[in-house]
Specification:
The complex is a heterodimer of chains A (about 260) and B (about 200). With about 260 residues, chain A is mainly alpha-helical. Helices cover about 70% and strands about 5% of the residues of chain A. Chain A has 2 domains: about 130 residues, no CATH class; about 70 residues. Classes of the chains: A mainly alpha (about 260), B mainly alpha (about 200).
Amino acid sequence: MIQETFSQGHSPIHNLTPRTRTLAAILLAFIIASCHELMPLLMALGGAIILIFTARLNLFKAGRRLLVIAGFLLLIWIVLPLTCGGPVIWQNSFLKIGQTGIDLALELTLKTSSMLLIFLALISTMSTADLAHALHSLKLPPKLVLLLLITYRYIFLIEDELQTMLRAAKIRNFQPGTSLHCYKTYANLLGMLFVRSAERAQRVHKAMLCRAFDGHFHSLTEYHNRPQDYCFLGFILILSVVIIIGEWQIVTLPAIF
Amino acid sequence: MHIAEGVLSGPVIAAGFAVTAVGVGIGLKKLDFEHIAETGILAATFFVASLVHVPVGPSSAHLILNGVIGLLLGWAAFPAIAVALLLQAVFFQFGGFTTLGVNTAIMALPAVVCFYLFAPLLKKPGKIASTAAFSCGLLAVFLSAVLLGGALYFSNENFFEVATIAISTHIPIMIIEGFITLFCIGFLKKVRPEMLP
């Protein structure tokens, strides 16, 4: 089942307007993406963890989301140290582990996990409808926002339809396996899903016309920036500046790093 | 098929956004209000279809279907795929804001290329149409895998081996997508020929 696990809740982050959160998440993501040094990346991870705690997310569920990137990180930790060269840390007759690969793998791990945590704390804590309106107010093309809202609206219904069809196939003793028959069954099932979706789309379009749809979706909740929004944006700006200073090493860093 | 946040370098991210901005721009321009509901619902179907795992030997792979989406939507595949990927980021944290441009380009560019290459052939009788449908599914995933590998390699030359692994794991998926596209298009041709270009 598709669920918006974190979108409901009570926390200082949930109280911010979607626009503030979206802006902060986009800003931090692009700044972190352009960092390479250890110090700013550690600060970014620290900031991400603070945000996760401020959003009062269920830590177990949030941790499970980190598993999404675990497979990829495992791959780079295996491949990069063996292939990147650099000063040799450890070797036997056929394997050499180089410093460059370890540094790169560490950099990627810090970057990927801090970016994921920030996304989780700031974006997953709002409903997709709110995100769409935030993106609209950040000047994304209205048609694209409309498309996002329609897609979001129908994902759940279509997933339901897919489950119904898979259940029907199972009841008729369909067992998935590596065979042409299996792929053909899946293809027909998906073809049927496309047909039903197209039919549904025609009904939806007519229903929208009947309700005088003119290309605008109106949000039921109005959001206005409050003092805490400005405070939060201030905090994010300071964090960004600190990260950038760390990256450019404008200030000489303490010897521990 | 998507690249995680934090892996790509600045220039690759910028290039991805440039390609996606142009593609989405053209796609939205060709998309009138008559078809916006249809495109949205097909984007939702694309999202849901990517949750289907098909068995491949002892393991399983999830479907990509960008070939089918390209055939059904043409240039509108760009906005549809962009929206579906944004929703994947929101629901499952697959990718995020910075990689949205590159990930959309990886999936949608092959979809549009396949649309132009194979859409005219689908009306031909029998074998030609089947071959076209199979090649469409296969080529769309192949091009996506190559773009994915390229995005990794141009981000950091040390990713060469990782990129090679990423491309080679997609080889069985290419063949499966070929068959799925072949059967799926065959089904649509029988049941709803007006949906095809």
